[in-house]
Amino acid sequence: xxxxxxxxxxxxxxxxxxxxxxxxxxxxxxxxxxxxxxxxxxxxxxxxxxxxxxxxxxxxxxxxxxxxxxxxxxxxxxxxxxxxxxxxxxxxxxxxxxxxxxxxxxxxxxxxxxxxxxxxxxxxxxxxxxxxxxxxxxxxxxxxxxxxxxxxxxxxxxxxxxxxxxxxxxxxxxxxxxxxxxxxxxxxxxxxxxxxxxxxxxxxxxxxxxxxxxxxxxxxxxxxxxxxxxxxxxxxxxxxxxxxxxxxxxxxxxxxxxxxxxxxxxxxxxxxxxxxxxxxxxxxxxxxxxxxxxxxxxxxxxxxxxxxxxxxxxxxxxxxxxxxxxxxxxxxxxxxxxxxxxxxxxxxxxxxxxxxxxxxxxxxxxxxxxxxxxxxxxxxxxxxxxxxxxxxxxxxxxxxxxxxxxxxxxxxx
Length: 413
Prior knowledge:
single chain, mainly alpha
């Protein structure tokens, strides 16, 4: 039975569900720690600043590990690689659950983070093979749906479980979810979808980075994420210090933002399958405008609720299209997809740093929203450049193709 026949039997959808479940588990371990920091800090007898490294250390490991792990597994079959990455994820969270001290806890976070970027990078390519080409971005969006749902549920899930049974119970729960996802991928993802990256050894994959389109897309990704998360990092302060919400309101406001991520992911996948570059340009424009308007209307409670939802929608609408764009520009190599995840994490770090600078300079807690709008505006310019260059290349290829066909016809006559 060929791939298309298997797809018609529903195998592709089950495989996508398994990948989404893996994304959900990984997303949980990334986001859940924010709601557990006070408990972890007390439980391991460390300062709040030290506990904060359980977040920053994770993010830095994702940025480096995405490329390193993908490069290390370049010639291996991708389905077993995905299973192995989830085994690493399970081991890392198990370490966190049983950690007797802070160094062990930090090691567990690092081990779990090693799988993050390469799972989404390699998994996005496997997801694309499970569907017809015209549904590629929607398949990527389906896999990332797990991550967006985890963003909505992660913090409240961690806080609820941690408050009732202790913070270690949260990591035991994530370990169990990771184990189920590992088994689901092993059983439900067809072997042909996780074929060897084979002809794309490390040297060949590195050669794909000679493409200007690859670098333009990675840059646009970093700037888009940097603008959104640079503002998002300080939203709790914006809501409480500028808008006037109470600290207890922040949790449901973040759920509104997370719901926007889910909607944006679905809409972005569908739009990218219809017209990828147009969808990316519209999404980045919407994100820049939303951030700027949010900065202007941050003192209004109704406006803030609407705008934080739109921030999630436009921010994550770029994700499926950016990943399929960079992998297409790189000839489908896994390293490019993983580099896209790294670029987003680098953007997150730079955006948060820039937002912190303007707050430290005394510009107020709405200032990161304006800084984010400016960063996204630069990303929009980069994306516009990439889209124009891509359109010009397609036009030139079409002209050359037409001229070649005409020449062949002349010779035949």
